[in-house]
Each structure stands twice: as structure tokens, then as C-alpha cells.
Amino acid sequence: MIIADWNETKRRKATRRLTAFLAASTLMTVLGTIAHADPVASKPFHIPAQSLPSALALFGRQAGLQVSIPAELVEGKTSHAVDGTMVPAQSLEQILSGTGLTFRIDGRVVTLSKASSAIMLGPVRVGGTADRGSPYPSDPYALAVNPAMTVGSKTPASQREIPQSVVVVTQSQIQEQSMKTLNDVMRYAPGVTVGQDDSERTTFYSRGFPISAWMIDGLPTTQNLSSIAPNLAMYDRVEILKGPDGFMNGFGSEGGAVNLVHKRAPDRLDIKAQAYAGTYDNFGGILDVGGPLNKAKTVRARIVGNIQSQDLMWNSSWRQDKQIYGTIEWDVTRTTSFRAGAGYSYTAQKAEWTGVPAYSTPVNGKYALVNLPRSAYIGAPWNHDVYPSTTVFGEIDQKIGKEWTAKLAYNYLDTQDSILNGQVSSTVDKATGAATLGDTKWHQRDIQHSVDLFANGPIHLFNRAHQLTIGYMFQHENYRGINYYCGPNDSPSGNTWCNRSGSIYSSFPEPSFDGPVSDETTINTQHSIYGNLKVVITKKLKIVGGARATWFDTKFVPSARNYWQDVPSHHKVSGKVTPYAGIIYDFEKHHSLYASYTTIFNSQTARDYKGDILPPLEGEQYEIGVKGSYFDGKLNTGLALFQLTEKNRPINDPRYPAGSGYSLPQGKARSRGVETTISGNISPNWNVYGGYTYTDAQYLDSSTNANGVVFSTIAPKHIVKLYTNYRLVGVMPRLTVGAGLYVSSGLHAQDSSGYFMRQPTYETIDFRLSYKIIDKLVMSMNITNAFDKHYFSSIEGGAFYGDPRHILFTLRYGQ
Questions:
Q1: Rounded to the nearest 10 degrees, how much is the dihedral formed by the CA atoms of 482, 483, 486, 492?
Q2: What is the spatial distance between Cα 698 and Cα 219, in angstroms, rounded to a whole number?
Q3: Phi, psi (5° rounding) for residue 187?
Q4: Which residues contact 5 (CB under 8 A, 6 or more apart)?
Q5: pTM (predicted TM-score)
Q6: Are 176 and 768 in contact (CB under 8 A)?
Q7: Which residues pair with 322 in a beta bridge?
Q8: Does residue 556 belong to any structural domain of this protein?
Q9: CB neighbour list of residue 787: distance below 8 Å, 6 or more residues apart
Q10: Contact 293/269 with Cβ under 8 angstroms?
Q11: Which 8-state DSSP code applies to residue 208?
Q12: Across the 815 residues of the chain, what is the mean pLDDT of every consecutive 10-residue run?
């Protein structure tokens, strides 16, 4: 085990990366110079209030569009002033506000007409740009900043139509904050905390409970030990639901659900590219090309490639990411459409595995961490981890009659990891640096298949259209884990774990791992039928009710290479119903009150000392709140109060050594709290995202010997997350400035002996500057943790430092 020297030879020369970055930058500059106008791309508009014909002529020049101006429609009318960066449709909406006119954009041509008396919210009419199923079919700008969501709903719905707390992190926010992986998204998502299980694998928490339900385009998958946070290059946005989601995911994950939405194939040629370079030798780029494959635009495709290489915060550590993604869409007939795609990602790294160790002797009941620089690498020089992942998906949409639709969707997910690691596996003697040093080698593979078939449409009753969804879902998971142990030649006294005594300042060779092998497989199969009905009582009052019946079968199958002599096990759940209910009251044009009730029932794989599977996790959540929507959907807000209870939480059985795998049902726990959120645009030049969360999570069952003790060492009581971006109107209209704030109250962790570790309250601040060089070509600089705050972002699975200050320069072409 060594603490590596900062001057150790790096795997990649910074000069070669810089050359590649400059070459990509030059190429994108040339592309931007020859770019033509895009009718839905954001542009700077500076149009004073004046006669309507003059304003429309100036709009046409600034937008690069041809405007047909019938004299009989515009004569004698005046326009409103427009000043800001926005899509042409939004600019034209402001110009025509109050004139009684509407418009349509077809390609590069704008046509004006008289507005119908039925048009109440403005004159926008844009042809060929709306996302299918969007609640904002006439406003692509609102669609971009607050898109329709499918998390918590099988069909696209606005946030006000979902009676639970939800958050969406859009493509624009991902670009503005230079988010690269799902970990970045979850760090900035309101109400979510990121727990570090080891150097690479993370667990997300909401309301004090883990978020174990992942979805890809609405199809449930499972987060497990081989899962790492995926790169975002193939995804358009991330949707997050807080609290249990039994309706969508069967056995509802307590903390919530995360839905990753794949990028779609556009119906016009669209070229996007990024090149970036920053501190810690962070270099990379993305190429994203899509468009129609035939003249009728009934066949469309998109392909995305991503590559990144960077050094990590620890000396001599590094990480490389590669990803390729492609999708194709085909409008088979006017009522039938088909979509398919596939993606492959590969991550390799050398990283510290277990974080900063603690000294073995607590002082005043508190552990002290080994006093080392944040950059110190505590690991073996031969550490190497690999994470390949493959996904394949397909779906068929079919219209049934005039109002009903049906969808059949399939998703295949194959995640793997191969781990070779040496790490500190105990506390450290303060005087000598002596500790137990452990070697680890394993391979895990998780293969999942998901199928979803559902139909959705209105039921007309009592002069109202009520919405019904019925469906069937199938999931199958095959998870295999292989562990390799040391033989007697590599481990004193034949210790098969490869544990050996040593110093964290010493070095030792890589063992041969020629000892026994543990090879075990877990097979999970789940069938579900579900239904959901939204009943429209009045125009303002809606009641949502639903239920899901689930059949679950899990098998644990050790192979002949069964070092631990584990016994096979088989567990079934038949027809377990998880109900769901909610009510939504639109008491005012911009605001809705809601209340909801959801249940938790999660079959466990943890076993007790007899080999029996623990009883299922069970619980329920009550939530009430108010949601707001302003500026035709461009700005959303939310306020929620929640109470979530759960019983049978697993903990390690203290009667047996750590690592035995034996667990006990922990008892009853409760989480109460408040969440506030805001997302979208306060003005055309000013957007804001963030929120405040208060969480009070405690044990409630005396069987845990912790009655009234806070159980959530991951989730702090108070979290503030805020990010804002503003274009300097009238001063430097091509320049945009941004800033982010993250504030967390203290974290604590406590072992079975009552000794604890604490991270006090901390805050980090981010900054951003961007400059529009020419249309569609933007240079930006992002500074995260600008004041280089030293803090531990996670202390539960190990003490892991939060990221140090990073500076990243990005040249982006395309909108």
C-alpha cells in the first residue's frame, strides 16, 4: 500500500490532449461560421416598441426568417418591445401580444393570421416543432425549460398533473452546469443526496431513504452493486420523483425513482458538438448528429459519440469514459410509429477505493481521520476497475380510434464490473500507521429485461372526459457475482480474504488470487398488472386513483464453487397490491393544491444467520403540497409536506463479524419534512433552478435500541441547492453569467459501539461565464467549488472528500 507521489508519471500527456481540444475547437468555429439560421434555435433579439410592420421586418432580419406581412392585418397596429435571447417563436409571441394576431412557422417562413377567439394564452403557433404528447404543443420554449414528464405517470404530464413532488433536470441545465454523469445531476437536484459506497459506485437518497428504482424511458430497472452513475451523453433529461412510486415500479422504492430519458431523433438536420478542457487534465468531446433519412421525414435517426479522460483528485489516479449511442424512428403509418436504439459505454479507472481511514482509538467517543492531504492516494499501485454497460431498447406506438393509444416497449440492460483493488480495510494505528490491508478481485454482471404494454385514453362520462391507463409489465433480472480469494502463498495463515498486516505508508505486490472462488447467482422475476384512473370531478378538481398487483419470484443459486457454503433459497410473493391515490385542485389559474397516498412493499434479498430472507420492507407515505406554473409553463414552483414510514429495514447482525452477510430487520423508521422547488425562467434572460429541503428521519421501534435516534446519516436535516443564469441585457448581450450555491447541514455516522464521526455544516459556490461568439457557437467557463472548500461529501460507507475546485472551458456548437 502506498501514498503515491504527486510527480508520478501520468498516463496521458496534457500536451496531446490540448492539441486535440484546439483542433476540435477550430473545427467547430468553422462550422459555426457557415451555419444557417435555425427557426427554433435561441437568438438575441433587440426590437424596440414601434409600428407592427416595422417590428416584423426587424424580427425577420434578426431571426433569419421570411415573414409574410399582409397589410390588411397589420395596418395601424403597434408592437411590444423585445430584448433578450430566446427562440424566434417566443420573440414573435411578445411582438404580437395584444394585436389579435397569431402565426405559424413552416421551415423558414412565418405566416400571420387572425387569432381565433378560442386562443386565450397567446398567439404562438409553430409547425413541426412540438414534442409528441407534450402539454405545451404550441410553446417550444416552455417545453425546453419544463418539459412534460413520464415519471409518476405513464403518459406525458405537466408537473401540476402529478400529485407528488417531482423534479426535472433539462438538457439546458445539463449544458449550463457542465454535468457529465448522473452523479452530477443528483448532486444538484433539490431534495437528493449522494452517498459514496466506494470510489465509483454511489447510492442516491431522498427523504432519508435510498432511491433504488431506476427507469429508462419509463421502464423500471434495478440499481445494484454493479451499477455506476451513467454518462449523460445519450440522455436528453433526467426526471426525479421523491417518495415511493409503487404505481410505476411495483414494489415501490422508498426514496423515489429516477427516469433517464433517451435523446430522440429530430425531424430536421441537427448537428451539435462540444470540446472541453480543464483542470486535472480533464479533456473530452461530444458529437451529436441527427435528422430525417427521407424527404417525407417519416424515418429519422440520431447518433451520439462521447469521450472523456481526466485525472481524479488523488495523486496518480485517473478515469476514462467512452460512449456511443444511436436511435432510429419510423412513422410506419399515420397511426403507427416505431422506435429503437442502442448504447454502449465503457469506463475504466484507477481510484482510491475506501476513502480516508480513521485512527483506531476514538477520542471522547469520536473517530479522528488520518491526517493526510486531500490529494493523498491510499491504495495499491495496481488498482484497476472496469465498468462496461450495454442497453438496447425498442417501442411501438399505436393509435386506437380517435382518442386511445397503446404502447409496447422493451428494454435490455447489461451492466458489468471487474474490480482489482488493494485498500485499507480497518482503522489505523496512529503511532505506526499499521492497519489491515485488503486485496479484492471480483467480477459482477447484471442482465435485465423489461417489457411494458399499456393502453391509455379517455372515458366519457357525465359530460366529462376521464383518463384511464391499464397495463402489464414484466421484469427479469439475472445477477451473478464471482469473488476470487488469495491462496496460502499470498496471505499469512491461509487467510483467504487476502487481508494482511502492514502500514498505509508501505507497498506490497499484487497477489495471485489463486485461492477459493465464490460464484453466486440471484434471479428475480416480476409480473405486474396495473391501472390508473384520473376522474375529472369539475374543471378544477381531479381525483387520481390506481393500484398495481405484483407477482415476484427470487432465487438465490450458489454454484459448485461455493466457498461460503451458502444454501440455495427461493422466495415468492403472489398478487401483492400496492394502492395509490391522489387529489388535485386547481384553485387558481397558476396554482394547484394536491394530496397523495402511496405504499411501499419491497421484497428483500438480505438474509439472517439461518439463511432465511428477511421480511419485506413495508410502509406508506402521505404528502400534501401546492404547485405553481407561471408564464405559460416557463416557470414552475412547488411546496410539499411529507411523512414516510417504513419497517423491516436491514442492518448487519452485530452478533457476527462484519462481512458475514447476516442481517436483521431493523424495525420501524419515520421521515418527515418540507421541500420547496423552483425551476425555469423568471424572464427571457434569467433562469433559476433549486430548492430547500428539511428532513427529520428517526427510528421509532425500541427493538433497534435506538428509539428517537436519527437513522439517516446520509441525508442532512437541511439542504439548500440553487443555481441561476442571467444574460447581461443591454450591457453585454452576448455575455451570460451564472452562479450556484450548495449548503448542507452536518452529517454524522455511528458504529455499533456508539463511536461516531461528523462532518460539520458546509457550503460550496460555483460560477459560470459564457460568451456567444457567433450564432450557435458559445464558449463557456465553469468553476465548481470556486473557493476550494475542503469537506467530506459522504462519511457512511467511507470518508470521501468532496470534489476540489475544478475549472472547465467548453466550446459548444449547436443549440
A1: -160
A2: 32
A3: -65, -35
A4: 315, 316
A5: 0.83
A6: yes
A7: 307, 346
A8: yes
A9: 764, 765, 805
A10: no
A11: T
A12: 47 50 48 44 76 85 81 80 78 84 78 60 37 40 73 81 92 93 93 83 86 86 70 94 74 81 93 96 96 94 97 94 97 95 95 87 84 89 93 95 93 93 87 86 94 94 91 94 88 77 79 90 93 92 91 90 84 87 93 92 72 78 94 90 86 61 74 94 90 89 50 77 92 92 87 74 96 92 96 83 95 89
Which 8-state DSSP code applies to residue 250?
Answer: S
Contact 739, 724 (CB under 8 A): yes
The grid coordinates listed for 780 are 463557456
Looking at the structure of the chain, the number of domains it has is: 1
For residue 190, give every residue at least 6 positions away whose Cβ sits within 8 Å of its Cβ, in sequence order, or none: 167, 675, 676, 677, 690, 691, 692, 693, 719, 721
Q: What is the CA radius of gyration of the chain?
A: 28
Domain membership of residue 648 (yes or no) is no
Domain region containing 389? 271-360+370-606+625-637+677-691+771-813
Q: Which of 550, 479, 467, 697 is nearest to 252 (CA)?
A: 550
From 200, 327, 203, select the one nearest 261 (Cα to Cα). Answer: 327
Q: What are the grid coordinates assigned to 48, written together? A: 424596440
Cα dihedral 113, 116, 122, 126 in deg (nearest 10): -50
Residue 613 is classified by DSSP as B
**Would you say residue 233 lies in a domain?**
no
CA-to-CA separations, 247 to 124, 153, 155, in angstroms, rounded: 36, 9, 13
Give the strand order in the sheet containing 66-68. 66-68, 109-114, 101-106
HSE-CB for 133 with a 13 A CA cutoff: 15
Cell of 809: 472551458
* Residue 478 grid coordinates: 439475472
CATH at 492: 2.40.170.20
Distance CA 218, CA 469 (A): 14
* CA distance between the termini of the chain: 48
d(CA 243, CA 667): 19
296, with CB counted inside 10 A (0-12, 13-18, 19+), is exposed
- Side chain identity, residue 444: Q
From the list 723, 757, 753, the residue with the least C-alpha distance to 737 is 723
Count of H helices and E strands in the chain? Answer: 8, 44
Q: Which residue shows C-alpha cell 436491514?
A: 650
Q: How buried is 538 (Cβ within 10 angstroms: 0-12 exposed, 13-18 middle, 19+ buried)?
A: exposed
Q: How, if at all, do strands 756-759 and 270-278 pair?
A: unpaired
Residues composing the chain: 815
CA angle 86-92-94, nearest 5°?
85
> In whole angstroms, what is the distance from residue 82 CA to residue 46 CA?
6
Q: What would the DSSP string read from start to end of 107-174?
A: TTEEEEEEPPTT--S----BTT-PPTT-S-TT-HHHHHHS--B-TTSSS-B-GGGSSS-EEEE-HHHH
Could you tell me which of 519, 482, 28 has the C-alpha nearest to residue 286? Answer: 28
Rounded to 5 degrees, φ, ψ at 512 are: -90, -15
The answer to whether 719 and 689 are in contact (CB under 8 A) is: no
Q: Could you give the C-alpha distances from 463 to 118, 459, 537, in angstroms and in order?
A: 20, 10, 10
Residue 449 amino acid letter: H
Specify if 252 maps to a domain.
no
Indicate the DSSP class of residue 704. G
